[in-house]
Design brief:
97 residues, alpha+beta, Ribbon-helix-helix fold, two-stranded antiparallel ribbon, 2 strands, 16% strand, globular
């Protein structure tokens, strides 16, 4: 039986333009969850991510955004190492200290 690919290509409107984005299903799932908590659509969130990236392709920028978000969420739940949440850093162009 052939295995299905974990890579999924979806069409999405980014900044008023339709484009295709290819991501692993796990990244799509987390991206949609983040958008839900931010009270925006996935397309709005991707447009926001697109507006903050300095280089690279959009799929990579989304993966890095999701990774930072998941890492920040993990720090928030680690009671042994308190973390001051800075949600705006998820969209920052500046590297973390």
């Amino acid at each position: 039986m052939p295995r299905s690919s974990p890579i999924v290509k979806r069409s999405i409107v980014v900044g008023g333009h339709k484009t295709s984005i290819t991501l692993e299903e796990a990244f799509w799932t987390e991206l949609k969850a983040i958008a839900l908590t931010e009270k925006m659509t996935a397309a709005e969130l991707v447009t926001r991510i697109d507006g903050t990236r300095e280089q690279g392709n959009l799929s990579s920028a989304i993966r890095l955004f999701v990774l930072r978000h998941v890492r920040n969420k993990a720090k928030l739940t680690d009671v042994a190492h308190p973390y001051i949440a800075e949600p705006e850093r998820a969209f920052s162009r500046q590297p973390s200290k």
